[in-house]
Design brief:
This protein has about 40 residues and is mainly α. Helices cover about 80% and strands about 0% of the residues. It is globular. It starts with a helix and ends with a helix.
């Protein structure tokens, strides 16, 4: 959820950060949410 909020504020900055912070299993799920919000 924190990532989703950050995406709205800093979309390009959170993209690389999310990959490092989130696990590889959650990576595809998070990316899907980002695309929907965009």
């Amino acid at each position: 959820m924190l990532i989703t909020i950050s995406v709205k504020c800093d979309r390009p900055k959170i993209e690389p950060t999310a990959l490092s912070v989130t696990s590889p299993v959650v990576r595809p799920h998070e990316r899907g949410d980002v695309l929907s919000y965009e």
